[in-house]
Write a sequence for this structure.
């Protein structure tokens, strides 16, 4: 739904659904281990996507970066937001810093600069001044 809201019907879009199975080891040590991936299915959602580019790698890396950068998304922690509004603000600040303030190792510039949205690395003072 979010893809349709953002791009309408003018996008080639597919989904990769991973199929997980339960492991045989149900001991306490294995309780927090990831499930075993038994396979994956690709499905066309809209348009005519190229199946060789259907992957979860980018979003999984983005989710890991967010979890490692914001402890409130780490499992088994007490650093959660009691109000959803506080969580929304934390996520917005994280992505503002990630895209406009942080120089990325592979890009050697910020993602905003690479996308042509900014011509400089923003300081935290500039981010705060937006409030």
């Amino acid at each position: 739904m979010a893809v349709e809201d953002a791009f309408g019907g003018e996008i080639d879009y597919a989904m990769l659904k991973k199929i997980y199975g339960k492991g045989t080891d149900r001991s306490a040590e294995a309780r927090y281990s990831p499930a075993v991936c038994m396979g994956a299915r690709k499905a066309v959602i809209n348009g005519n996507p190229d199946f060789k580019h259907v992957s979860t790698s980018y979003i999984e890396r983005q989710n890991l970066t967010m979890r490692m950068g914001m402890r409130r998304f780490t499992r088994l922690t007490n650093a959660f937001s009691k109000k959803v509004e506080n969580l929304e603000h934390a996520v917005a600040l994280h992505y503002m810093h990630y895209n406009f303030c942080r120089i990325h190792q592979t890009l050697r510039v910020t993602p905003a600069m690479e996308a042509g949205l900014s011509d400089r690395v923003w300081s935290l003072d500039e981010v705060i001044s937006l409030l």
About this structure: The two ends are 30 Å apart (CA to CA). DSSP finds five helices and two strands in the chain. Residues 84-101 form the longest helix (18 residues). The helical segments are 2-7, 57-69, 84-101, 111-114, 124-129.
